[in-house]
Design brief:
By secondary structure, the protein is of the alpha/beta class. The protein is 25% helix and 24% strand. The strands form three sheets. Strands 2-3-4-5-6-7-8-9 form an eight-stranded parallel β-barrel, surrounded by four helices. Strands 10-13-16-15-14-17 form a six-stranded antiparallel barrel. Strands 11-12 form a two-stranded antiparallel sheet. Strand 8, helix 9 and strand 9 form a beta-alpha-beta unit. Helix 1 packs across helix 3. The chain is elongated and about 75 Å long. The two termini are 20 Å apart.
């Protein structure tokens, strides 16, 4: 028999979450499916999100997989190209590239076609990660407009505080002032801005985490804005143990029983993508009932409290996150974010839809 752990990817939930994005804006939707569709499977996600106006990702091989699967939408490379040889494939597969640095403009001379490349000029409006500084934009824009290989230009930026109380007002004012000088399309909004700041929607929006059914906000649940969880990670109890007061659980005895208890051993560990640093008390569901993690997560196993779930036994279903247990709650307990949990799903975990 196969090991009982599995991930279920709900493609209907993906479609629902795209519909939530559609209802929130009249802008074109660039669905962000980088990192193997946030761990959900690139082609699996693309199939469910086929109604999006475009797809955004990082790697040229992934973009080629989409084209060869028949997707004709705009495909945006979020970090653009990295060397001159990339431009042959960019041209062959009609990919759109983010231009964020002067060295990329210099490489455009290697583009094998004339006036055929659409680019997104990235402006650093306050994130201080990728992008041209405000005082560099005019020169970069002029270089792109004059370049024989460039067809259409879109101005983009990225918000650092859209999911925080600080908001987007400073960055939005800056990027709007810059973009107003040029008659080009614009793209600013990530998931948080799409849901909370309509003024950021402009021509394109770039939803990511919301498409996978997680809220971008610490103070707002995914369910409250109509999102449905896409990934459910589950396994089963494979053994039980009865503890006495003073007994310790797992490596380094990070949990010590203060009373008689019953625990379950679950076939899931950090080699499956469950966070090793998740502490005692991280929520789980056992046969639909609330329980908690006990002790240190091992490579292939973890332990949960069965004391208040007397019917639980070997074979009982354990939900690590997903349907019935929002991934944000697990991530918060583990001191991380839902993005990391999704992307960390290990290749050895079977996936079904």
């Amino acid at each position: 028999m196969p090991r009982p752990i599995q991930a279920y990817i709900d493609q209907n939930a993906l479609q629902n979450n795209l519909s939530v994005a559609r209802r929130s804006t009249s802008s074109r939707i660039m669905a962000v499916i980088k990192a193997n569709g946030y761990g959900h499977g690139l082609l699996r996600v693309a199939e469910a999100l086929a109604g999006a106006d475009g797809f955004a990702l990082l790697d040229i091989p992934d973009a080629i997989r989409l084209r060869e699967a028949g997707y004709r939408q705009t495909i945006l490379l979020l970090e653009g190209f990295f060397e001159a040889s990339d431009l042959e494939l960019v041209a062959e597969y009609q990919l759109t590239c983010v231009i964020h640095s002067e060295w990329q403009i210099a490489l455009l001379d290697a583009y094998p076609k004339r006036a055929a490349l659409d680019v997104w000029l990235k402006v650093n409006s306050g994130m201080h990660r990728l992008g041209f500084a405000p005082d560099q934009v005019a020169v970069a824009m002029e270089q792109l407009r004059r370049h024989a290989a460039v067809r259409e230009i879109t101005v983009m930026s990225h918000f650092a505080f859209a999911d925080e109380t600080r908001g987007v007002s400073d960055q939005l004012a800056l990027i709007n002032d810059i973009a107003a000088q040029y008659r080009v399309a614009r793209s600013y909004a990530n998931s948080a801005a799409l849901l909370r700041y309509p003024a950021t929607h402009v021509d394109w929006v770039r939803p990511g985490i919301m498409l996978y059914g997680a809220s971008p906000f610490a103070d707002t649940t995914a369910q409250s804005v109509g999102l449905k969880p896409v990934m459910t990670l589950s396994s089963r109890i494979i053994a039980t143990q009865d503890l006495r007061a003073g007994d310790e659980v797992g490596y380094a005895g990070q949990f010590r029983a203060d009373r008689a208890m019953r625990i379950g051993i679950v076939a899931c560990g950090y080699a499956d993508g469950y966070p090793r640093h998740a502490p005692n008390g991280t929520p789980v569901l056992v046969d639909g009932s609330a329980s908690t993690l006990l002790g240190r997560v091992s490579m292939d196993m973890l332990c949960v409290d069965l004391t208040a779930i007397p019917q639980a036994c070997a074979g009982s279903l354990v939900t690590l996150w997903g349907a019935g247990l929002p991934i944000e709650q697990v991530a918060a307990a583990a001191g991380t974010i839902s993005y990391e949990l999704m992307c960390a799903l290990a290749a050895r975990v079977p996936v079904r839809t």
